[in-house]
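Example record

The entry below shows one chain as it appears in the dataset: sequence first, then structure tokens.
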Amino acid sequence: MWISSRFFVIFLLLHLDTTCSEPFEAHLRGPGFVMEPPGRVEFSNSSGGWLDCSASGSPQPTVDWVHADGSAVTEIHGVRRVLRNGTLVLMPFAAAAYHQDVHNTIYRCIASNSVGRIVSRDVQVRAVVAQAYKVDVEVLSASRGCTAILRCVVPTFVKELVRVVSWVHEPAIYIYPSLQGDGKFHLLPTGELLIHNLQESDESQSFRCRSMHRLTRQVVVSSPTRLRINSHRGIISPSVVEHTAHVQVSQDEGAVLLCVAQGCPSPEYSWFTHNGAGPLPVLSGPRVRLLGPILAIEAVTGEDSGVYKCTAGNVGGEASAELRLTVATPIQVEISPNVLSVHMGGTAEFRCLVTSNGSPVGMQNILWYKDGRQLPSSGRVEDTLVVPRVSRENRGMYQCVVRRPEGDTFQATAELQLGDAPPVLLYSFIEQTLQPGPAVSLKCSAAGNPTPQISWTLDGFPLPSNGRFMIGQYITVHGDVISHVNISHVMVEDGGEYACIAENRAGRVQHAARLNIYGLPYIRLIPKVTAVSGETLNLKCPVAGYPIEEIHWERGGRELPDDIRQRVQPDGSLTISPVQKNSDSGVYTCWARNKQGHSARRSGEVTVIVPPSIEPFAFQEGLAEGMRTRTVCGVSRGDPPLKLIWLKDGDPLPDLLGANVTMLDQYSSLLSIPSLSATHSGEYTCVAKNPAAEIKYTALLQVKVPPRWIVEPVDANVERNRHIMLHCQAQGVPTPSIVWKKATGSKSGEYEEVRERPFTKLLGNGSLLLQHVKEDREGFYLCQANNGIGTGIGKVIQLKVNSSPYFSSTSRSVMVKKGDTALLQCAVSGDKPINIVWLRSGKNTLNPSTNYKISVKQEATPDGVSAELQIRTVDATDSGPYFCRASNLYGNDQQLVQLQVQEPPLPPSVLEAAMISSRSVNIKWQPKTMGTGDVTKYLVEFRESDPLFVEQWQQIEVKDPPMFNAMIENLKPATRYAFRVIAEGSAGRSAPSQELIVRTEPQRPAGPPLSLSARPLSSTELLISWVAPLPELRHGDIQGYNVGYKLSSSGNTAYNFTSVAGDYDGGNGELLLSGLAKFARYNVVVQAFNQVGPGPLSEPTGAQTMEDVPSRPPEDVRCAALSSQSLQVSWQPPPIYHTNGLLQGYKLVFEPIIDDIQPSKDEVESRKTTALTMVLTGLRKYTNYSIQVLAHTRMGDGVVSKPLFCHSEEDVPEAPADIKVVSSSSQSLYISWLPPNEPNGVITKYSLYTRVVNGREELNNEKRSLPSQQAYYEAKGLHPHMEYQFWVTASTRVGEGKSSRVSSQITTNRVPARIISFGGSVVRPWRSTVTLPCTAVGKPKREWFKSDVALRQGGMHNSQLLDSGDLIISSLQLADGGNYSCQVDNGIGTDRLTHTLMVQVPPTAPVLYVTSATSSSILMHWKCGFTGNAPITGYTLFYRRTNGNTDEMQLSRHASSHELKGLVCGSTYQIHLSAQNKVGTSPTSTMLHVRTQGQSPGHPASTALLAPNSTSLLVRLHSWPDNGCPLLYFVLQYRAVTEDPDAEWVLVSNALKPQRRIVVNNLTPSTLYQLRMEAHNVAGISQADFTFVTLTKDGDPPPPEIVHRGHRGQTTVIFANMNLLIPSIAAVSGMFCTIIMVIVCYRHKQANHIQKESLENRANSEAAQRERYYATIHKVSMQNNDKIPETSEDISPYATFQLSEAGGNMSQPHHGGPANTLLHSFMYHERALAEGCSSPPPAASKNRRRHSRKTEPESEESESDQDQLTSSRTESSNQHEGKIKHSIIYHGAQSSTSSDLSPMSEQKSLPRRGRSRYHHQQYQFSTNTTPRHHNSNKMNNNTTSNTNTTATNTTATPSTSSNSNKILSPRGGNLKSISSTFKSQDSIQCHIPTLVKSPSISTQQQKQFHKQQLQSSSNAQHSSSSNPNSSSLKQQQPLLITPKLHQLEASNGQELMGLDGIGNSHSPLVACMPPSSQFRPIPHKSIMPAHEPPHHHQNHQQPHPQQQQQHPGTLLNPSTAMLSSKFFTAPTLPK
């Protein structure tokens, strides 16, 4: 019971599902989006965002959201929600709650139902956190009349979210975006505001930018900004300052192309398109507006895309820019077909169609999706998707997704349905045999399309309807149908053949199997069966029970079959085919029997029915409307009941059709239509049916109907830029076709067919869609309908475009004379009525009723309206912009009309030069802003501005179009011109403008320099001189010259150029070319240049450098020994490029390499030859020679080759040096000998000859050979009392040499004491051991003596006496040298031997002295001291710059001088020298402190330096003296002199390179300025202040009160500066001393006369010394009249002083030479008295010599300038005008007049000059020693305390070689003694004072004084210390100036003697020559070294003769004038 109830429930459910499946299947439709979300969604965090998505389908789809990765989007509380309607809500959030995976991600919407699933495009969601921002305004200014651009600058972080909504023209005029603008203001869609036709009045207006955040809708307004109008004048060619390179818009939107250019005059614009074969001009049209710099295109299409070019041009030129317009056209995506039904197993094909405006689009990125999932690429062919072998899994929704490069996506959807497929049984049951009772379930599963229905039968009949049977079925998710038959309690009668039949409209299939139930046969009830005649009948016997043996059929008592049509199947079923009604109708009986014989029997009735058959019928052809027709449907056979009905097009006949149906009989039906119409056309079907079948027959009725209007076209109006649909629909049979045509002209003219194109759409219903209608679409249209019936129909309609007003141009200009009537016209196009309104300045409406001056007219034109505004009696106030504003029903537009009232022009203003060239000037000016009268032309007048000659004005015209500039050409270069401009208009000419003075630019010089000459000065120098080009060819100031030179033999045509600065005055020039090739010929050219460039080259001139010595040695030097005394040497000449002249020959220098103790003579020999080989003869035998070869020209010897060592051959030796024969016993003699002094080879043996002599008879002769190392022999066994003679020879491999002397000895019994050793010279190095032999015979007693002093054992600490008699001396020292004698005595005889021991030690230090110095070199000589008993092998020179590293240099042993080169200018160097021999190195020489020439820069005179103008200052930098060291750079600053002492300085440059001149500009006329300059060179810095006054504006001198104020200010500044105050006080004190000296000079008037005569005598006596020179160490700058000393008369030989120690010599270990002394020799030159002190130094030149200093720059003070415009103030306020040269020689104690060769004797003689000037002119010179850091107090104290101090001293003559140490005092102070005792390595600083030259004392007086000085030298030290303050002497004594000694600590710890120690009793004095009373120190302009305190010379009284000896001082030569005060240090030698 439970089972049956459960099956019953299941059956009900499945039955319900089955009954609903059929209607559901029929109405399925896949999902489709009704609202697809956009591709990009942006929202603010404060507002949140919504994503809407809805879809439709059947059943209704569900909407879900997923992420990009496919994961489902879930709700997040408070952040994200998904609503039931499919909307995704992103809620507002705080900034801190921002989540990237929520607020900046990609979402997709999915719609799905049972058919399939689709996915939306990617939705990029971006949440923006609201931030505050500000906007600024950027102004791109323009010139008057041009276009300015105002750009709204939005911060980058919100730029893409903010757009400009409007601009505010203050105070409240809003300007909104438009494509056209109003003619004045134009706000572009991109936000830029253009302001056209700028005027001066626009500068006073303000503008603000209004921007809106498109998410938050927040409006931000910028701050107001104003316009700026550029003040360009003259012609300026256009330049594009702003253009949009790329514009991208969507289709149907407006595009604006911007191209703004600036230039003067305002440029005109032209636009071109480059979309075709060539550039085509863009023409204005309905959609295209040319607005000057703007090209506006409305409703752009794809055809508008491309490249555009804008060109802006004016008279000055043109500029262009290219712009690209890209139009993004929307695309449409469609899948064809959108619904596809395919039978299972077939092939499905979808195609994705991508179009834009109806046209296919090229290759796109296409993706295919199936039910929301992307398909793999297989099966895709471009835009086609192919699905082969379609199965049930392939059905569903397909999507084509097109993704464009811009990022947006488009998609289309299609559905794939399965087609009709006959059922297929997927599962079936099997036959079963069961016992009655159990439950049975039978199952069938089938598939098909549509979904099949399954029915069940039992033996061909429906299943029994009882409670045990339950049938159920359901459909799986795959669409399969599963059906069950469940029998709860099977019984015997349930057995039989069960069949399941699956059936749909595509077919049916069945399956049958038996269910056998054991039991007796049982036949169920057979229902009545109806069979169809002509078909097959199959009767199953419904028998049950099992097993059944047989089944039989009977009819009418007869067993069947009884006919051929009948068959009984093996399963017992009866088949009749075909069934016949008459024979087969009746009762049939079925019986069954089993094997047991049990049987069952059952009968059933079979009825046969005949199906109907319809006779064919048809309608006649050619039926037309209004005709009649009929037809009959007859059934030819079929059993009643029959039913006949008519259908039209598948539906029953409607009552309104008007057709009549009449049944003729039960088998026939008549259809008649009395009046045919178009509605009667169609398919008519006759249906006949009876219970057997339903039969249909169809016939077509075609009624021909001509076209007629359904929707007749009518006239239409459309607003411009709108869409319009022109409807035209017609009907007819057949359906007529619709064609649209448009008239090409009038209504009756020609028509052309309208075809589909962009914005023109032909719809399928015949309507014509016109989009974005413009005026070109206006006209007559014809719609034609035709179907072939008749002529067709047509209708002409008129389309009118309602156009808003528009103007052909945006602006125009009207000019009218003042007082005339102005006519302002405007022509507007558009639909009437058009209203015209005139406005002034765009604001005020002009009304004739309120303004009597104006009248307005208006008249219609074919295209619109023409308006005219008349303004009577115009004046300047009427000028300005007028706007003609037109409006109608459809819009408005306006045109700008600029009115300019012409007045008589005013003179132009702001005349200036826009461009100045050498021969042309471009003058520009501005017209007066008031009075805008029309200027027809301008007259530019010009003439040369020459104050001496006034020329007539020349004139040029500047005609229409009026320009504010003019080019005046054909001018002269570098010439001043005056220009003025006159404006000329219709009313006449204006007054001339103010004159403009312009100097034309220079040109390159047109002429070459003249008189070019070149002469050689040395082997590497050529002096080039020339004369400037002709003045008329200079074309400007000659700034300099380019001197080019090249080797004449060079194939290179290019010259090497070097520049020479010019003097700007066209003077002559010269250049010293150095570093040239020696003895080479050069071609030289010169060209002048100015600031523009160089001029032409001069004609080349040739010159050859002088010869020089060869710079390379001979090459390939070889040597070969020819004999023992001759060598052959050969070589090759030096390279030809290094001979440097004509070779005169070669010199061979050779010397033997011997180790003599001290050669008696220098064996270095030299021989000359002109050949390339030489044989040296007379050489030492078997000796190694050092050979060097050099080439020489007439200029001297060249470089010597490297030493080549060559050995002469062996020869027979000389005789042994000595031989001794002594008796050693009665029968033996001892023979010893010395080797030969000249072995001439290697001694191989000795031959000892013996001869026995008895009286005169030779008894025996014997020769004995002894080895070479044996020098003795004892002959034994001799006869007593016989005379034996011996001699020895030595032998080499060459042969036996000469024999020694013959020595004889008689043997004797008594052996006297004799020494067999030899004495002589013994040379040993120190610290070694020597053995002095004393071998004797006769057993004597020995004694050793040293210099006749007996030596005892142990008497010498380092000696030892051996028992053998030898004396051994160890640790030899120099003191051990001497004569050592050995004396032997044995009572019988005595003998004595002497050894001369010479100990070799390192040499002593050489004596080094400096002979000359330049700015980069020092020349030094030296004398060798004690050589240490060994030859000098070389010298080492050490030198270093102060605070620098020590460098050393190895020098040859033959050298006695060397020149250090490449030194730093103006620097002090420490130099010392050491010598070497084979034993060791000597101590270094006294360190010399030598300063190279050059000082820190001097100070120029202000008049030479400065040249002020009205607004500028010319600074002549070349006038700044460099004092021997080239200037590196300048620092220049200035300021105006005001009451404020702390006024700021204006820095011109802090690194100004040296140049000839510089101009300081931007000064104020008539103003007092202060100029501060610093000059820098290697030696130091020089600073000077100058004041100057600029001229007035007219170039006149400034007012006197300004000049006087400058002098007053100058005084104040000087006294405010302590650095200036101290020298000033010193100068006053010096003048006071001068007065005292004048008194002294007056007292010695008589003596002066005598000395004048003696001076002439002395000059004659010194003529013999004319060629002696004293080299200079400090070179000074020379004025034009400076002289170089030419002869020895010009140099006083007495201007010397010496430094030496008392006693004459200074001893040190191993130093036997003279004491190291310091000898100074001075050189002076004169200057004419006529030259003032303010004369400036000359410019720097190569040969100039200047003072050097280390820290403090020498200052120069100029006297009062005659020019009141300038005055100078230097750091020291002193300017030294004296010219000084120092000549200093460092050497030993030799006399300055000795016969030693002067170091300068090899220099060339200078030209001789007269000497008379030196005897008749007075020279003034003083010493300035005031440093910056000292004040004047000390100076004043010293001056006061030393006023009465005697300053005369005695000194030695230059010939004195041994005298006291003397130091020349730099100060005239209290004279005190200075100790002559120096410590070791003390450094003596000597300061040389400045004296005044007066007539010399006589030579006799000098000699007398020398004698006195010699007598007093021994007591100098004691006297000076005991009586430092002696009283005045009564007779003439020399002026004694005693220095102070500074106690300084040297860097090495040695104590140095300074000059500040006055009063020190140990300070030594330097003796100088005694001057006479004519020596008068004159305080004058001083030079102050930085390290000296201030001092002044005193007026010293005459010393007492006795005091003369107590104060040995410095002798000052009377002829020594103007000596600079300098320090030189020379450390003394160690004691």
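Notes for this example: The longest strand covers residues 317-328. The chain has twelve helices and 149 strands.
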